[in-house]
Design a protein that fits this description.
The protein has about 240 residues and is an alpha+beta fold. Helix content is about 20%, strand content about 40%. It has helices at about 10-20, 70-75, 140-150, 195-205; strands spanning about 1-5, 25-30, 35-40, 40-50, 55-65, 80, 90, 95-100, 110-115, 125-135, 160-165, 170-175, 185-190, 210-215, 220, 230-235. The chain has a 9-stranded mixed sheet, with helices on one face. The longest helix has 12 residues, at about 140-150. It is globular and about 50 Å long.
């Protein structure tokens, strides 16, 4: 449903993504500075820590009939560890963080409209999240962990070093890290309307956004903080 990003300047990062997906930003009414950009039904949440290297901090899924206390109890009984506090998030074997919230979700009541970037249309019309990829140190251990939450993994076909889970209309992918690489929430893939790879890459380049990879089905780019993202078509 949403993704938390920790960045040096939350408004600057939100303005970058607003040019791409939605030029109406949102923000928390009260400090600390936290901004939001909608991705169709999903959204990005930007927290600010100037002294921390930028990274994707957590991901969140919505659950029918969710009760925070009961869900946490059930997950802890299954061996899933949580951070401190009432809003503590579940950590996987690499410490990558996952959050559950109740349907229908959406921006919280403490969030208000922020600055509109411009009257220009954003580069793309975002529909929602297609998938996200986690890079993990032990694929088998991570698969066992996420099976407790999302059930059976999808059949592995082309890549034995990557496992997939279907999470409602989104997929969660687990990829074995390369030698010397740290585990991470590696990238988020966003479905956009009318996707054409050649046109999408051209739009990004014209906006001075670094394109890091392109195929007929997807275009990868880096944001102003070096975080990688992907655009795909609506299946």
């Amino acid at each position: 449903e949403h993704f938390g990003l920790t960045v040096p300047d939350s408004e600057k990062a939100a303005r970058f993504y607003g040019r791409i997906f939605d030029n109406q930003l949102f923000k928390e009414k009260d400090p600390p500075p936290r901004f939001y950009v909608r991705l169709g039904m999903a959204y990005l949440a930007f927290g600010q820590k100037p002294d921390v290297a930028p990274f994707i901090d957590h991901f969140c899924a919505l659950t029918d009939g969710y009760d925070r206390g009961e869900a946490r109890k059930a997950m802890e009984e299954a061996g899933i560890k949580f951070g401190d506090g009432a809003l503590g998030m579940a950590g996987d074997p690499d410490g990558l963080r996952f959050q559950l919230l109740a349907v229908p979700g959406g921006l919280a009541g403490s969030i208000v409209p922020g600055p509109r970037i411009s009257q220009e249309e954003p580069l793309f019309q975002a529909i929602g999240t297609d998938h996200l990829i986690l890079h993990v140190t032990n694929l088998d251990a991570s698969v066992a962990h996420y099976k407790k939450i999302f059930g059976a993994e999808l059949p592995r076909t082309k890549n034995p070093d990557r496992a997939w889970f279907q999470v409602a209309h989104t997929r969660l992918g687990l990829q074995q890290v390369a030698s010397g690489e740290k585990p991470s929430i590696h990238h988020i893939s966003v479905r956009v309307a009318g996707f054409d790879a050649k046109s999408a890459a051209a739009k990004l380049k014209a906006a001075n956004i670094e394109v890091t990879g392109s195929s007929s089905k997807a275009v990868m780019f880096k944001d102003l903080n070096g975080i990688e993202m992907e655009l795909v078509g609506h299946a």
